[in-house]
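Worked example

This section walks through a single chain of length 221. The input is the sequence exactly as stored; nothing has been trimmed or padded.
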Amino acid sequence: MMPVTAEMSEVLIPVGDETIAGDLVIPTHAHGIVLFAHGSGSSRHSPRNRFVAEELQKAGLATLLMDLLTTAEERIDEQTGGGLRFDIGLLAGRLEASSDWVRANPSTHDLSIGYFGASTGAAAALVAAAAEWRGKVKAVVSRGGRPDLAKEALSVVRAPTLLIVGGDDRVVIELNRQALDKLSCEKRLEIVPSATHLFEEPGTLERVAALAVDWFLRHLK
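Given that input, the structure is written out below as tokens.
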């Protein structure tokens, strides 16, 4: 449940000549703000990301969940088989544009920024964090992510980065270990026992949320 003392609004974020939609929640006396980058085939309505967002809100962190593609792009993606939702550069650019919007918005301009990325969204979050390396992004959390898709951007990331992977998600564990080796920032790999890729097993998503809350509260000051 969202905190009683929180402001919630639907926002439109400019991206070139178009806009992307987002859901913004700002608890009273927020300590920072976390921008969510969902995985391919998902949206800002992802129940897993919304669960994590609600836990962050309870801890006093603002959240912004966005659709990273415009309405027109989503339509094109459906017709062409989904190429845009795997375009890491495009998605990272949308995160950067959203960060600029957050810094310009009177309600959020003084809040430290963190990124929470899931699946391919984790790669976009890391690429965007690398582009925003001058202290603008304070922390990154990846849930079941594909940080390996960030490629050479990994070595440029300076934001403290937490990689969370399910213990039964064997292939993704190895990909995260390889990405961890390439990160030169403060970093940690956390493996949640008995969890598969989507963290659908009882208690596993709650563990993800607790880890994310701890990481962001420590770094979004």
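What to look for: The first strand starts at residue 6 and ends at 15.
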